[in-house]
Request: fold
Amino acid sequence: MHVRRLLAFSALLVLAASLPAAADDTSGAVLTVTPTWPAEWPMDPAPITTDHWPELPPPLAPLPPATPAAARVVALLERVQAEQRDLAYQHRTSVNERLGRYRWDCSGMVSWVIRHAAPRAGRAMGSERLAARGLYRMIERAPTDRDARGWQRIDHIEDVRAGDVFAWRTAPGSPSRHTGHTGFVVQRPRPVPGLRDAYAVRVADSIVGPHQDDSRAPDTDGGLGTGVFVFLTDGEGHATHYGWHGTRTAGYMRTPILFGRLR
Reply:
């Protein structure tokens, strides 16, 4: 997706998230979100279960990454964020570690980090850089009870840990022209009170248009940073929707989100 289109799409979602939601005047009534987006979009209203807009819950006590490869991913992401001076979101990956230049899109960043921090999983990706839908397929094909060529799929969102990969494919009917989106989890998923079967997850990704509680300065060209998504689940731990703006999201995009572990 062109950067201008990305900004316009992000601005529209921010607008949708900031518009007032309808609720009965009766005390204790559940807040009801009124859709403000085109009917053809694969988007569902926030499943609020209380009479007020949900707040972002505090982080859970941290757990260590589940594998040495995931620990190396976390360490590399922290180093890059500390060293980057020339950062941007762009489709062509341009990295010069000596100059602190890290310019890439979401899949370019994920591919670079995996190849440097988890070489076994990187070799399984082949020689060409994968787009987000390709990384989704890597996770989708991986077993859940063991790893295969350095990849393992995590079946329940509560088992996700820092250093794990997430990916989704763009759903038919979405206004996005991307193949999907991908990044890394950096904090344990935390249940969101007041949102049915929802989890807030801090991630590291390369984007234009911030998430909730985002580390990127608003006047930049995007790039690598961290922020919070909210993922809705089916009640059995499988993520079914994403909320780009965390608990501020009014409309959740409907598409399966997969989580993978590197070894």
Remarks:
- The CA atoms of residues 34 and 144 lie 38 Å apart.
- Residues 3-18 form the longest helix (16 residues).
